[in-house]
Design brief:
This protein is mainly α. Helix content is 73%, strand content 1%. The protein is built from eleven helices and two strands.
Length: 279
């Protein structure tokens, strides 16, 4: 008769990720933008893509539910490079399923730290280079009356798209596994997780500064000598108003306010302030 430790060890061996689960993640990754939302952006697409791996690793309903909630956090990256993050996350989830003392918070910390760099690279390559190149070739063919122009565009773009998703996923999983083993042996695991958490917070802070726009139309004085209050506030602390608005929205979410209600109030308040000439 097997002991409890032997049974646990057997279950963990059976729950290892195989090529079958990773291929499932690859195909599902094409739907990552299907449920894009303004609150958490690609989070639901990420969860859906990870399902083959999570179901294999967590046969217990409670553990699976925890994993689904864990990956429902905010996520946004160039879609073609999302599978790379999924590969790393899969490796970390596999390590979590095998180890009782694994820090699950590190999974989202690593995901958050990768969003900025991968988006910068992915946007430049795919949206700034490959798509215009494919469109230029297709437009030349279209102007010449070639009916294959749209097919050529799709082929050129999607060759890189599919290849990046496929090889990125498996490379991410491979790197994630070896990366975690090396860190664990060197004892630097906690330092790396702390660093990635800090970088993740910096990325979120940068997004708040660049994506939230709050500009006041009020001024002191009149004519050419008028001083915009917005300039005065930014002189004290750049992007202070976007930061305060972001913190207010975060506080409302923590209080349990519904996202749709908050969005409605943002529209109403913004239109009202603009009508009064304040914004």
């Amino acid at each position: 008769m097997k002991t409890s430790n032997e049974i646990t060890s057997t279950n963990r061996e059976e729950g290892r990720i195989t090529r079958k689960e990773l291929v499932g993640v690859f195909w599902r990754s094409f739907t990552i933008n299907a449920s894009f939302n303004y609150e958490r952006q690609m989070s639901q697409g990420f969860v859906f893509s990870m399902m083959p791996v999570l179901k294999k690793l967590y046969p217990e309903r409670g553990d699976l539910a925890d994993a689904l909630v864990r990956h429902s956090e905010f996520f946004n990256v160039t879609p073609m490079l999302a599978p790379f993050t999924m590969g790393i996350a899969s490796a970390m989830e596999e390590e979590n399923a095998k180890s009782d003392d694994f820090d699950v918070n590190s999974i989202n910390a690593v995901k958050a730290s990768l969003m900025g760099p991968l988006s910068g690279i992915g946007d430049s390559i795919f949206w700034g280079t490959i798509r215009p190149l494919a469109a230029g070739i297709a437009c030349s063919l279209a102007l010449a009356g070639n009916a294959a122009a749209p097919i050529v565009f799709l082929l050129i773009f999607n060759v890189f798209n599919v290849a990046c998703r496929y090889f990125g996923l498996f490379k991410g999983y491979e790197m994630g596994t070896s990366f975690l083993v090396k860190l664990e042996k060197s004892g630097a695991m906690q330092k790396v997780f702390l660093g990635t958490a800090i970088v993740g917070l910096l990325v979120i802070g940068g997004m708040a500064a660049s994506m939230v726009s709050v500009k006041l139309a009020l001024s002191i004085g009149s004519g050419d000598s008028a001083i915009l209050i917005d300039d005065v506030i930014n002189g004290i602390m750049p992007k202070m108003l976007p930061l305060l608005v972001t913190l207010l929205l975060f506080w409302l979410l923590r209080k349990g306010k519904k996202v749709n209600t908050i969005l409605l109030w943002i529209i109403v308040v913004s239109v009202g302030l603009c009508f009064l000439g304040i914004m």
